Amino acid sequence: MQACIDLSLGLLVLDDSTLDKPYASQMALVSRHWSGKHHAVVQGINLISLVWTDGNACLPCDFRLYNKAQDGLDKNDHNIVEQWSKIGRKV
Fold first, then answer.
1. HSE of 58 in the Cβ direction (CA atoms, 13 Å)?
2. What sign does the dihedral 33-38-43-44 (CA atoms) show?
3. Does the N-terminal or the C-terminal CB of the chain have fewer CB atoms within 10 Å?
4. With the CA atoms of 38, 35, 37 and 77 taken in that order, what torsion angle do they form, in degrees rounded to the nearest 10?
5. Structural domain boundaries of the chain?
């Protein structure tokens, strides 16, 4: 897939999304996160995703499941964009 991505022709988009899990308090990865959809803190799984787009096509490049209780990293510590720039991609 890396050969398909020419960053000079598109953009990298970094997004964090909360997958609501209101009835799954004992499920792995479920914790409390801010939800833009609900404009409140909710129970759910937080997904950090990096996609490339040129306005017509959209390709997923990378993702992380945010789980500070397990890995000790906050959302910014995952450094997805930095890792992509280290492997030769201009950001």
1. 6
2. negative
3. N
4. 170
5. 2-86
Question: What type of residue is 39?
Answer: H
The closest alpha carbon to 33, from 1, 71, 81, 65, belongs to 65
- Measured between alpha carbons, how far is 2 from 84 in angstroms, rounded to an integer? 10
pTM of the model: 0.69
Q: Return the pLDDT at 32.
A: 87
pLDDT digits (tens, 9 = 90+) for 8-64: 678 888 888 999 998 987 888 888 888 888 999 999 998 988 888 888 888 888 888
Nearest to 44 by CA among 72, 60, 25: 25
